[in-house]
Design brief:
Elements (H helix, E strand, L loop, with lengths): L14 H17 L29 H12 L14 E5 L2 E4 H15 L7 H28 L5 H16 L2 H15 L3 H22 L7 H11 L8 E9 L2 H12 L4 H8 L11 E6 L5 H7 L7 E7 L2 E11 L6 H32 L2 E2 L31
Antiparallel strand pairs: 1-2, 1-7, 3-4, 3-6, 5-6
Helix pairs in contact: 1-2, 1-7, 2-4, 2-7, 3-6, 4-7, 4-12, 5-6, 5-7, 8-12
């Protein structure tokens, strides 16, 4: 196969937006999936950084609204004091109605592809989670006002613009596709701006609340490495590039062209509908199995280095890919993991501090829920997967 990798293009954004995104992604990664998300089986929020890959939330509603609610749990006061007709919940003087919930659901559907289940227990759970997420959002907005945490309009506009370019394409064509998607979902551009603004504020609020958390000492990082040595083992990863088309028939035509010797990057430029990877020759990065949708991962990790694989269908279309390099699994070294482990330890401390703080805010909020929207156990936080195994560390982590 010819080596025709393209050079990655760099997108310049303001430092504020980068900081917001970094904090949001940290919160999201610590939180885990939203149970109502259609991508729940593969993690929260799927998006087209590639079309076989799990989707990172672009504006992180999950981090700021739902996941923080599920992550932090907290204690809500929910004695029935009597809600107004049509109300779903009340926090202080703020009443949220069923119409309000439908409007927010439309925004989430437009931004993140989150659909309410059609009925049964799944729909009931979705309503409870959505209501709880709104309570958390209101509590956080109030805390942000009290602390004077704000985000400039320019940052919101830049974040929305970056979202549109990444998920719908650049220029007027991308903007038009975005507006069409909003119309289909029953949402407006102002709805999106408000939601983006909320999440950027929460990202900065998280930073404000956890700013004084102590960083781990070198001795603590070394001790954590010894305790987590086996868990830090690096699984096999693969450098992949990918072409996305709309139909199975188109996918077979693409594969036939590649088998005839057409350059991968040229076929990407002519045929791929994935806006996010067009400028980099279809490259979607170094990925592990856990980063990919299950069906896509099975095919991609069965292929040999240099081999074309597919067609394989993902939620965004039909995919033809290529493995450009295989990185075998290997044991972690302290030098190789020291910086990332130190960052993870700090993240864990900041998340713990955030949870404690948020629990206090939720206890004080004294939220009231209507029947059918009240969380099953509003006073206890959800289970969070522990980083450390409960088993004693062993000296043998298995062969790499």
């Amino acid at each position: 196969m010819p080596d025709d990798d393209a050079t990655d293009s760099e997108v310049e954004e303001t430092q504020d937006v980068k900081d917001d995104t970094m904090i949001e992604e940290k919160v999201r990664d610590e939180a885990g999936p939203h149970p109502a998300s259609p991508a729940n089986e593969t993690g929260p929020d799927v998006g087209p950084e590639d079309r076989g890959r799990r989707r990172p939330t672009p504006v992180v509603w999950v981090a700021a609204a739902v996941v923080l609610a599920l992550l932090a749990g907290g204690a809500f006061g929910w004695s029935q004091r009597g809600l107004p007709d049509g109300a779903v919940l009340q926090v202080g003087d703020t009443v949220v109605t069923q119409d309000d919930m439908r409007e927010r659901q439309a925004t989430f559907r437009a931004l993140y592809g989150i659909e309410a289940p059609s009925g049964g227990d799944e729909l009931a759970a979705y309503r409870r989670d959505a209501a709880k997420s709104v309570v958390v959002s209101l509590v956080l907005e109030s805390a942000a006002r009290e602390r004077g945490v704000t985000v400039a309009d320019a940052n919101i506009d830049q974040t929305v613009s970056a979202y549109v370019t990444r998920f719908f394409g650049a220029g007027d064509e991308g903007q038009g596709a975005f507006v069409d998607a909003l119309g289909s979902a029953g949402a407006s551009q102002e709805d999106v701006r408000l939601e983006v603004g909320r999440q950027l504020v929460v990202a900065r609020l998280f930073q404000d609340v956890t700013d004084e958390v102590d960083e781990p000492t070198p001795e603590e990082v070394r001790a954590a490495f010894e305790e987590r040595r086996c868990d830090l083992r690096i699984p096999e990863q693969r450098d992949l590039r990918n072409i996305v088309v709309a139909t199975r028939s188109d996918a077979f035509k693409v594969r036939a062209g590649l088998n005839q010797g057409f350059a991968f990057k040229d076929v990407v430029a002519r045929r791929s509908i994935d806006q996010a990877s067009l400028e980099v020759g279809g490259r979607i990065g170094r990925l592990g199995r856990a980063d990919l949708e299950e069906d896509y991962a099975r095919v991609a990790f069965a292929a040999a280095e240099g081999e074309i694989y597919g067609p394989v269908e993902s939620q965004y279309g039909w995919n033809i890919g290529q493995v450009t390099k295989i990185h075998p699994a290997h044991a972690a070294t302290f030098e190789g993991t020291r910086e990332t482990l130190a960052a993870k330890l700090l993240d864990e401390r900041r998340t713990a501090a955030w949870r404690d703080w948020l629990r206090e805010q939720l206890v004080a909020a004294d939220a009231e829920y209507a029947d059918g929207y009240r969380p099953e156990d509003p006073t206890s936080p959800p289970d969070i997967e522990e980083v450390l195994s409960e088993d004693e560390p062993t000296s043998d982590c298995g062969a790499p």
